[in-house]
Design goal:
about 475 residues; alpha/beta; six-stranded mixed β-sheet; five-stranded antiparallel β-sheet; about 30% helix
């Protein structure tokens, strides 16, 4: 159980995470109760939406509603300013070893626990064995995208006009949160883009156009290697409302719309028509350099997209961020290029990549591989006070018993003091995140397991292991 001490103080690390009530004084996206303001706002906007994971879960109908306030999340934690020593590693092993030996977790399991204040590894079991990570892959995707693009980056959807051919081109900017709904809930609005485009065309005395759409920002196949699956729309640079046929905003919808780009453009044509602009039936095209810009709309900042991806385990955002990481670094924006881009960014950050295999951005591909060591180091890197641009990878983690994929978990355990990214595929159950000890120490943990096919029992076993960290001294 090797250690890699960092020159952090317990105060700095805990303030950066904003998990201990006594030190929630650092600047950041937090309200006075310690809840992320993004969580609060999304809870208010989506009171009937739970989280999602690869198997559905709390995002399904009838799930518990996300808490509109997490005022009690920090209750009882006290101040971490007097924490001097890390929890005892030997005692930690005595607690975790039997919990992780639970048969419900299957025949393969690895784990690492680190002190986020010092960087010291406190516990390790098979730390360098690479296993299928499922949705905990999104932690790597988040860190890579934030590193390559920065937290303030926005995704732009725009329109351009080819005056020689009277062609109007809707240019996809790879924003999976673009919305065609009347209430776009703070996302970029296709209706707003249509209004701006119509006004610009009328200034040019144009009221009829040939309508096309451009999705060339991305390359390669749109279909994920897992095939058609309601957990994910076709991966394209242009879509509206994640190609959902229902009004859901998270979790697997009833169905996904085939051909998301064409569908979004048909909706755009309807909105243009409402503003007096007639169009032809849309088809694919590519905007030229001589095309005249008309209007544009932009996504929320990348920090907010990362938080939404992490909290709701949003696969569409994950694949989009992986592609944008490739675009930003000059690699081909397909599945293979996105995987290389994620690896390259993590390598630049000095993270341990032995055995890691990045097949997608979401973790839906079972061929992906991560180690518990890498996941724990990703958490450490995101907690580094010198890398504030990576912090959304932590602030987006679901809060146990309160938000996202952990809304309906930890009801009788460590609600509010565990934050973690879940992962679930058939026979694969993973969990990685942070936990606050009785003494106010913030720990990072990564649990990867394989062979446990009873998902409820496996999740319960993982939750017990994470809860045990909160009782550690």
């Amino acid at each position: 159980m090797g250690a890699s001490p960092w020159p952090y103080t317990a105060v700095a690390a805990t303030a950066g995470l904003a998990l201990a009530a006594g030190v929630v004084t650092a600047a950041g996206p937090w309200d006075s109760s310690g809840q992320r303001t993004a969580e609060r706002d999304r809870a208010a906007a989506h009171r009937d939406a739970g989280g999602t994971d690869h198997r559905g879960g709390s995002g399904m109908a009838g799930a518990p509603k996300p808490a509109p306030s997490a005022a009690s999340v920090l209750t009882g934690l006290g101040s971490a300013t007097n924490v001097v020593r890390s929890p005892n590693g030997r005692a930690l092993a005595g607690v975790l070893d039997p919990l992780l030996a639970d048969p419900a977790l299957g025949d393969r399991r690895t784990a690492v626990v680190v002190d986020l204040a010092t960087g010291k590894r406190l516990y390790g079991s098979g730390p360098d064995e690479a296993l299928t990570p499922a949705s905990t892959t999104k932690i790597a995707t988040a860190v890579a995208a934030l590193s390559a693009l920065g937290p303030d980056h926005r995704l732009t959807t725009r329109t351009v006009y080819e005056p020689d051919t009277r062609e109007l081109v809707l240019v996809g900017g790879g924003d999976p949160t673009l919305s065609a709904r009347r209430n776009s809930a703070g996302q970029a609005s296709l209706r707003t883009l249509a209004a701006g485009t119509a006004a610009a065309l009328k200034e040019r005395k144009v009221r009829q156009v040939t309508l096309s759409y451009d999705t060339t920002l991305y390359a390669g196949p749109e279909l994920h290697p897992i095939g058609v699956n309601d957990n994910l729309a076709a991966v394209t640079a242009l879509m509206a409302d994640e190609a959902r046929v229902d009004a859901s905003t998270s979790g697997p919808p009833v169905k996904r719309i085939p051909g998301p780009a064409a569908d979004a453009t048909r909706k755009f044509a309807q909105f243009l028509n409402e503003h007096g602009i007639r169009t032809t039936s849309p088809g694919p095209s590519k905007a030229t350099k001589r095309a005249q810009p008309l209007a544009k709309v932009q996504s929320p900042p990348l920090s907010a997209l990362v938080e939404r991806m992490m909290t709701e385990s949003d696969n569409d955002i994950a694949e989009a961020l992986a592609r944008h990481t490739a675009v930003a670094t000059g690699l081909r924006a397909d599945f293979a290029g996105a995987g290389r881009a994620i690896r390259d960014q993590l390598k630049k950050l000095g993270l341990p990549l032995k055995g890691a295999r990045f097949k997608d951005g979401s973790g839906l591909d079972r061929e992906g591989r991560l180690t518990a060591n890498l996941l724990s180091r990703l958490l450490l890197k995101a907690a580094d006070p010198a890398r504030p641009e990576l912090r959304p990878a932590l602030t987006g983690l679901p809060v146990a018993g309160f938000t996202g994929t952990l809304t309906s978990r930890y009801a009788d355990g460590a609600a509010g003091i565990v934050r973690a990214k879940t992962g679930s595929l058939n026979g694969v159950n993973t969990l990685a995140g942070t936990a606050v000890t009785r003494d106010g120490h913030v720990l990072g943990f990564a649990f990867l397991t394989s062979g446990g096919y009873e998902v409820t029992a496996a999740r319960t076993a993982l939750d017990r292991a994470a809860t045990a960290l909160t009782t550690t001294r």
